[in-house]
Amino acid sequence: MISTYTIVALIVIILVLGIFTVKQQTTAIIERFGKFVGTRQAGLNFKIPFIDKIAGRVSLKIQQLDVLVETKTKDDVFVQMKISVQFQIQREKVEDAFYKLQNPHDQITAYIFDVVRAEVPKMKLDDVFEKKDDIALAIKRELKEAMLSYGYDIVKALVTDIDPDAQVKAAMNRINAAEREKIAAQFEGDAQRISIVERARGEAESKRLQGKGIADQRREIARGLEESVDVLNKAGINSQEASALIVITQHYDTLQSIGSESNSNLILLPNNPNAASSMLNDMVTSLVAANKIKESSNKTKE
């Protein structure tokens, strides 16, 4: 007869063989004689030894698939695009995800190729860069609709890289550099123009102030001469003699000013004793003649 210890040992072995664990975010697929009978979630689980078996384990974590797609744009430029798709198996559709698809990665890759090669040829290269989010949305929409029946949920689709042909990239860099040089030249030209205009304005203002100063100087000189003539007239000296005296005075003031400077040019004047008297007489004669000509011109006009 079979002893009690033997029966207990058999029961323990059966229990040990039937107990198994499932990790977090994982689902175990249980089959009985090759037929699906259910799933087991995370934690400690039990199956009938020698009858039930674990056909496989399915991860419920979000997974990512990176796909490189080469296609042509509307302006006949070949580009290589990197598409990243994040997907997850729905907990309530684990059976469909496990049994309906032999290789889900190949299925997703095929849909990505189909969508990219349908959308990108409608766009020019610049539009591909600008509308990469639209391409990603189209991929997600198409994949979500196709993979939902297989128990897969598409979480996110991203266009992570757009890589045109090397010659095209070099041409784009040259165009960009030329455009920036053009803008820099425009700024430099504007700066030079502003500098020239401001310098011209400064020179014009300087000339205006200089002219105003000369005019004020001459006006003050004329006023001083007028006052000097009035003073001499009050002393009994007529206007002609007063004018000649003022001219002589200014003449000698000029000589004194020239003599005080070491870098002055040499001026040779008549050095006979009557030189000053002769100069004064000549000036008086010239002034008298000028006055007579002026009086004669005024009578002719009358």
From TrEMBL:
GO-annotated cellular components: membrane
Domain of life: Bacteria
Family matches, as SMART domains: PHB
Entry keyword Hydrolase: yes
Keywords noted in UniProt: Hydrolase, Membrane, Protease, Transmembrane, Transmembrane helix
Annotated compartments: Membrane
One example GO MF annotation: peptidase activity
InterPro entries: Band7/mec-2_domain, Band_7, Band_7/SPFH_dom_sf
Name the UniProt record assigns to this protein: Protease
